């Protein structure tokens, strides 16, 4: 994956999440609907479709088709971003969810975060919503930062046969750097 492609993906993800935040910032009912949709209950998810699909729908036909296949990613991450809002694009360097999990483990000083993270790495995309939600709930209580646009971009590649996202998250969690990953981040920071 090239550096330019990553920046473009994060731009699209950031715009999607920011549009939803802006749309419901003064609507407590809509905010509550997004938080209830975290349960995964279809009736709650359907309530947020008029808002979420408004921004998903502004995609090309090929992007829309890909989005339909990935709605189990976009909708839950949008809900998480409402449940525990984070500023977009203000971080010096994009951080993976593995970094966030590492920060959680350091703050809680318990083996629970490590166990949950290991379990998360083994899950398929269709099973990831609840464990991801539980980790974000813990991160909220510990005030751990999350890069939601990067999370969306990463989850779009979750089921790649190379499992490069799981590898990146694992390296971030256990503090092992990768020269090629550092180089690509360095290029992002310079541009």
| Low-confidence regions | 1-5, 179-191
- Number of continuous helical runs: 11
**C-alpha-based Rg, rounded:** 16 Å
User: How many individual β-strands?
Assistant: 0
Q: Any idea of the CATH class?
A: Mainly Alpha
Oligomer: single chain
Total count of domains: 1
How is this structure best described in words?
There is one protein chain. Helix content is 72%, strand content 0%. It is an all-alpha fold and 191 residues long. It has a single domain (3-190), classed as CRISPR-associated protein Cse2 (Peroxidase, domain 1, Orthogonal Bundle).
Short description:
The protein is mainly α. The protein has helices spanning 3-24, 28-37, 42-56, 61-69, 71-83, 97-108, 111-122, 129-142, 148-155, 164-174, 179-190.
List keywords for this structure.
disordered N terminus, disordered C terminus, 11 helices, mainly alpha, Peroxidase, domain 1, 191 residues
